[in-house]
## 1
Amino acid sequence: MKRFLFTAVAFSLLSSSAFAACTQEEIMRKAADLQTAFQDLARKDPKRYSDAMAKYRAVAKKAATNPDDVCKAYDDLAATIK
């Protein structure tokens, strides 16, 4: 399910990312890195993981239409869970 969420947000941007500073490749790389970080967090601290996933879901809904927003959101989330 987590993989689907990350991938769904990334793929929803494929058609509009041609004009963005954040490329499709960057979004996919950031999604993969964030997924790994979330998996590590789930093992180490389930409470923080739950809180971070809730934040991710909220951010993903808002950022899903703008590739630059997705990149920024992924960067912000990665910084908070590492």
Note: The mean pLDDT is 79.
## 2
Amino acid sequence: MMLMTDNSNSANKGDSAIALLEPPVSTELADVEHQVRLLKVMKSLYQVDQQAKFLHLQAETNSLLEQLQALKGQRDSSI
């Protein structure tokens, strides 16, 4: 939690401190942020063809993971 002191001449002079709550970060948002950071690093380290190969493998890995999770869900529902 962040705490900010309000030293301005606003209408709420009685409030000397305003607590700002940060919303929880969802796992999807964290994953996207992680991928953005990863892509920035990749751009500085790898050539374009290597980036394309990596992105293709990443997409294939995600697809295989989704298939595995679907099969697991089918197996669990049949038990």
Note: The two ends are 45 Å apart (CA to CA).
## 3
Amino acid sequence: MAVRACRVSDKIIVMLKHMRWNDVELEKLNPLLDRQMITGENLMLARVLLKKGCVVPEHSHLNEQLTYIVEGALKFWIDGKEIIVRTGEVLCIPPHMPHKAEAIEDTVDLDVFYPPRQDWLNKSDVYLRNAEPAASR
């Protein structure tokens, strides 16, 4: 990972980052769910790896979320609807909107959050760490 401080003005210094996913820590949250995260000043990009049957329990957060499916498919329960998001598709989830997801096949997704998820950064995201697979519900 390359990090470089750049001066924007006399008082503001921002950090420029250039990295490869292979160099980002892979966090194992449960047997069916792994995650990598990169944060900037105001954004977070997460690469989420879900095995088929992985369930992300219903939750909401103050963060706006964009979910892009790189490969696979996720079924979301959101706003009273079931929505399947497949490879190449994007779902935009507004702040504070309760949602749940299930991997209906092995899936790689990229999630963008504004602002960054503090519960993920401080590892207080118990709802993910204790999630049960779809088969055992």
Note: Residues 22 and 45 are 15 Å apart (CA to CA).
## 4
Amino acid sequence: MAVLISERHAHSGPVAHHAPGLNSTMLLARPCAPAVRWVAHTWRVEAERVTNPGLRAVFAQSDYRRLWAARTISQWGDTFNFVALALLIFDLTGSGLGVSGVIVAETVPVLLLAPVAGPLVDRISKVRVMVTSDAFRLVLAVVLAVWHDAPAGVYAVAFAMSVGGVFFNPAASSALPALVSKSALVAANSGIWTAAVLSQIVLAPVAGLLVVTVGYGPAFAINAVSYALSALVLRGLRVPEVRPRLQRTRLWADAREGATVIVRRRLLRALAVGQLLAALSAGATSALLVVLAEEHLGVTGRGYGLLIGAIGIGAALGPLALLRFIRDPTRLIFVFGPFGLRGLIDLILATVTALPLAAASLVVYGLGTSTGAVTFNSMLQAETPEHVRGRVFASMDVLWQAGRLISLGIGGVLADVYGIQSVYYLGGALLLAAATAGLLAARPSETGRSGRLIS
């Protein structure tokens, strides 16, 4: 994903004076016009190397604002849908297994359709893919708002809505690098991530209250409205696109090309390994946090809510802290280091039994999750060749969802047989392995002495 740095007009005097490493002898040895152009280029390169645009810079771009608004509005609806769907299916089935069925229904489409979605995103307009996906899910959300009395129907709608997401997500991830320059990717992703987290923190309790007082229909109706508004906003989005010449009859071969790019590029391969190991860890630890709270920390209800709130606080503060205090967030330590930080927190959670210490640890976990997500996505967007972005991002989705499903299955067995602490010890070890694999993957040709990626 790319970032934008402002163009600077070359004026021979001031530019020559402030350009790093330049002097008058260099300028006298060259014709005037080429010298000015050379100085201006050098200054811009040096500026990009030490300056990362902030939120104000990315929000100054109208197309980024449009993409941000569409994704934020959609996130509002997703929050209402998530809360209402979990409560509804538990109401209808009366079991935790029934709730797990929703997770399976939302995961299977990714595993089945991502190999098709990736090439499609690379073939046609990303805006068209996103608008069509929103329109498709709008219809499904209306159906759910009107008819939600049968578990089988609810599972079917959850499955179909996930189908829309399979196409929307890689299209949105591929669009962002075309709207901003590489240096602004961290800020651009931070803006989207922070809005999503704050939406969940603020609106999740509102959604729960709405369901309890009014019913499920209005919550699903709000989700439908959010899809309609998102589609309307996206229709005006202009995304510069370079579409590869893909043969219409070779979808699966084109899908394999995305996987091949990941395997052959050392840094992308490291990101993929980190993604898979993190999914194998977080799938179980996130789903079984309620079990940790009850069986290990000895709290229920309000205490569990405190732990969830602690994660939310850290996740909301993470991107802002990243932009405010980290001069160069593109260094590999800030991409893979958060995996290690979260791994250490998992080990702490498996060891301590005091609720305040666990809550404080989860604030740090939230910080690691959000900063890691922003820097990880930014590097993935920046390092993926433009013509295969849809396929690479779809492949990453497959790794995440597959790892998450495996983690849920193994984690449940481990918790029952060896206790919940074993799940968090294993989860911590997997995240530490993800950090180690990523940091060891950097080669001198790919990074400078500081460990920063050189594009």
Note: The chain has a mean pLDDT of 82.
